[in-house]
Amino acid sequence: MRVLHHYQLSASARFVRLVLAERGIIYLPKVELPWEWNEAFLSLNPAGDVPVLVTEDGLTVSSGM
Questions:
Q1: For each of the chain's 65 residues, which pLDDT tens digit applies?
Q2: In the chain, where do the E strands start and end?
Q3: Which residues contact residue 37 at a Cβ distance below 8 angstroms, ignoring those fewer than 6 apart?
């Protein structure tokens, strides 16, 4: 199952959620709070930015600004 790490007020995360819904792609949403540094999330994206999509294969896709 795909996992989308996001924050509700993030514009880029909102855009990704919209695109996934339009395409009918099923994912498990996981909220990441910007003021709480979660070590497991930081291992996925050291920058700590959301959104981050983790596929079934373990591939991590994030915005690389």
A1: 999 999 999 999 999 999 999 999 999 999 999 899 899 999 999 988 999 999 999 999 997 65
A2: 2-6, 27-31, 52-54, 60-62
A3: 48
